[in-house]
Amino acid sequence: MIPRLRNPSVGRHGASGLIQHDDAQAWEQLNERPFAFRHGLAGHPLLSIERLARLSERAFDRDHYKRYFKAAELKLPRDTLKARFRESIEQIGENGKWVALHYIDEMDPEYGELFDLLLADVEEITRRPVRSQMTWGSLSVFLSAPWLPVAYHFDHETNFLMQVQGEKDLHLYPREFGTLTAPEIEDFYRHNPVAGIYRDELADAGSAWRLVPGIGVHHPPLAPHRIQNGKDVSVSLALYYVMPEMEERGHVYQVNYCMRKLGLRPRAPGESVRSDRMKIKLMRALSTSNPRTHDELLYSGVSRLAAPFRWAKHLREGRA
Fold this sequence. Notes:
By secondary structure, the chain is of the alpha+beta class. The protein contains 11 helices and 10 strands. It has helices at residues 24-27, 49-56, 78-90, 104-107, 109-126, 130-133, 182-189, 244-261, 273-286, 294-305, 307-316; strands at residues 35-38, 98-101, 136-144, 149-153, 158-165, 168-172, 207-211, 215-219, 225-229, 234-242. The strands form 2 sheets. Strands 1-8-5-10-3-2 form a 6-stranded antiparallel β-sheet. A 4-stranded antiparallel β-sheet has the order 4-9-6-7, with no helix packed on it.
């Protein structure tokens, strides 16, 4: 059984119409193909740069604030880091930076309510009880200075990226193009977020999308993508969640990663129900039984399973 990380703000609201579904046929491709949709978040007061700058200070109520800084910076006083982080958002138009704010639905009840409203819209459109079935979900905001690119990468979650301010170009490579190799996906699931390898032959593959305020694009899980910001400051909101079947597929890839390290040729997810079940059962036995974060839920098992391989690598490099 895959644990579920409960968010107390989820499940209280009905659909609000913030996410719209003019193209019902497109939504039938959820988690399989990308599609554009309209939303009502452009100009939303919670997503102004000024409001997000204030929100950034709440990141320091959680230990994850350390992810926003380099190791050397973490030696500075927390108040100094808090001021720097806020300034990086307030001055995003001049500083040439890319800034992300993660888990904003857990930082402030107003954003928790927005998260629930958006999920309720997805439920209304898809007719699936996402909030009661998902293992985890959250909201992230991405702020980008003019002309900045975001490198080629892919994610684990079902994702809805919604443009709030500015414009940018999104290039997305759905799974049917075969852009990812099994070793890349397996490497990703051993907790390497930059496992995707861009190749020149992908230049003309995939689909291009122009994101402007009021437009969003659905990213299926494991769909690689690149982003190029336009001439103005960009603000985007990402709504994402994970369903149990995606966690299970990740666990299969994790066991396959270790099998490949042993010189074996593992079966891909879906090739054998019995094999998949055995791999999932192994990973759940190795994983933290009561995870506090999604990283613990997904990666604690593979961290333990892959420990001998890391030890062997250290021996080869003379570090143990």
